[in-house]
Amino acid sequence: MNIKRAKQEIKDSIEAYLLKNEDGGYKIPSIRQRPILLMGPPGIGKTQIMSQIAKECKIGLVAYTITHHTRQSAVGLPFIREKIYGGSRYSATEYTMSEIIASVYEKIETTGIKEGILFIDEINCVSETLAPTMLQFLQCKTFGNQEVPKGWVIVAAGNPPEYNKSVRDFDIVTLDRIRKIDVEENYEVWKEYAYQVEIHPAVMAYLELRRDYFYRIETTVDGKVFATARGWEDLSEFLKACEVLGKQADREVVHQYIQHWKIAKDFANYLELYDKYKRDYGLERIVEGKYTKETIEKVRYAAFDERLSVVSMLIGKLGGMFKDWFTEERFVTLLYEELLRYKECMDLNQVLGEVSEKYAGLRKAEQLNRTEDGIWRKVLCTLEEYLQVQKKEYLSGEEAFARTKEMFGQETELREKRVEDTLGALQSAFDFMEEAFGDSQEMVAFVTELNTNYYSVQCLKDNDGERYNRYNKKLLFGAQQEEILKELDEVEQELNTGIKEMN
Fold it and tell me: 165 and 30, same structural domain?
């Protein structure tokens, strides 16, 4: 299955495992809460989904790559303790607390969250001395003589043997005590994630043209060569930094991330073309509706790769605007909620203190992603600004609230301006697409990408987009037609098979 489906299955399992009875105990007893084992190729996002699940379920996360550990750190260090059995004194070996178990308790102390995920990566690649410990861990949920705390779900991940020579097979006894989920790479699923984390548009445009280069592992005379989802994401972050610095990544730099020379060289060449397309077509002019007839003619008669690259660049530009809209919308919503509380208590200083405490709690519990963290910090800064204005103008009571309400009105105006600019840019993009390509496969690709991007979906769900809705209906109708024709073909094949068998 793909990583998106695997994520949902793990999330459903965690919710089931943490479901409680009326007496407060877990509905599924700990002994029946099977550890989950994710098996799949490296770099497809197994680790990332753990962090996402923990935030969405509002639980803790402790992650370990077990190959970095020795038996001593996993189980604990041995020490001798004297014990009396049957009136005789004996020396018995015991163990200090496992570093891994200790980390779980530390996480509980630090975050205040008593339930969570203990994630062990590369579990089937451990050393010979540590292998029995891992089997014990999966079968009994213990390291040495310490048990994983109640309320902590075990999820492990490993690589199939074709990707790692040091892989160890699990025996039937172990496999009969776990839930094994096999995952595989899937570009369409990764693309949804890529839009959310703002993967560089050049990477998105390239992979749309070269989908078979998204994930590839090959054995050559020079050893293993590979391109992975992790490599593309890390390269994307570096490319965005290079743009800020005014630098260019060449093929050698690309190869440091995409360790498949043919793909790295091909992408580096495409990156040069991509920069040329950006200069030639001028994305800013397109979304402002200021493009020329010459631009239309140029893209209309361009090669297919170039036309699709322009569409991807346009989606990338709009994607940034949709993300800014989402951030602004979320910020104003949170700020409004806090100002409602200010209206009730008429003490902005009190509200600011409570928001600061709430933000600190969310950070401590590790429940905020980068975007949400930035939004909360902006809310805090804005409330502090409101308070400073009140002090500076010697305002209190109703006057202070009225002044704050006035300043908040400016934020709502900015939000409305953001909505107007974003939808205006979308309309200009549709104008360009219609004039350049009409009702073509490029338009289908454009609308499909809008449906894939999380932020554009949220924006268009909340705001009416007449042309988007029109083209989207066409797209859905086309997809339904294809599905119906496929089903009819299957029925026809079954009938033909049945007729042959009767004859």
Answer: yes
Among 420, 448, 469, which residue terminates a domain?
420
Question: Taking the alpha carbons of 401, 403, 409, 414 in that order, is the dihedral positive or negative?
Answer: negative
Interval 251-278 mean pLDDT: 91
Q: Are strands 36-39 and 179-182 parallel, antiparallel or unpaired?
A: parallel
CATH of the domain at 177: 3.40.50.300
In one letter, which amino acid is 1? Answer: M
232's enclosing H/E stretch is: helix 229-245
Question: Tokens 């033909």 — which residue?
Answer: 496
**82 three-state secondary structure:** strand
What residues contact residue 142 under an 8 Å CB cut-off, 6+ apart? 136, 148
Which residue from 182, 178, 262, 279 is spatially nearest to 218, judged by alpha carbons?
A: 262
Name the β-bridge partners of 14: none
> What is the DSSP code (8-state) at residue 212?
G
**pTM value?**
0.78
Residue 297 lies in a domain: no
291-341 pLDDT per residue, tens: 888 889 888 888 888 888 888 889 888 988 999 999 999 999 999 999 999
- What range does the domain containing 364 cover? 323-420
Three-class DSSP category at 120: strand
Q: 177, exposed or middle or buried, with CB in 10 Å at 0-12, 13-18, 19+?
A: middle
- What pLDDT digit, counting tens, does each position of 473-483 carry? 776 644 444 45
CA quadruple 160, 166, 171, 177: dihedral sign: negative
The span from the CA of 8 to the CA of 14, in Å, is: 10
What is the per-residue DSSP string for 405-466?
HHHHHHHHHHHHHHHHHHHHHHHHHHHHHHHHH-SSHHHHHHHHHHHH-HHHHHHHHHS--H
* Residues facing 119 on adjacent strands: 63, 155
pLDDT one-digit tens code per residue, 223-236: 888 999 889 999 99
Number of domains in the chain: 3
- In the three-class reduction of DSSP (H, G, I as helix; E, B as strand; rest coil), residue 503 is classed as coil
Q: How far apart are CA 251 and CA 261, in angstroms?
A: 9
Question: Residue 292 contacts by C-beta under 8 Å, 6 or more apart in sequence?
Answer: none
- Helix pair angle (304-345, 441-452), 10° resolution: 30
| Closest of 57, 44, 33, 60 to residue 4, by C-alpha | 44
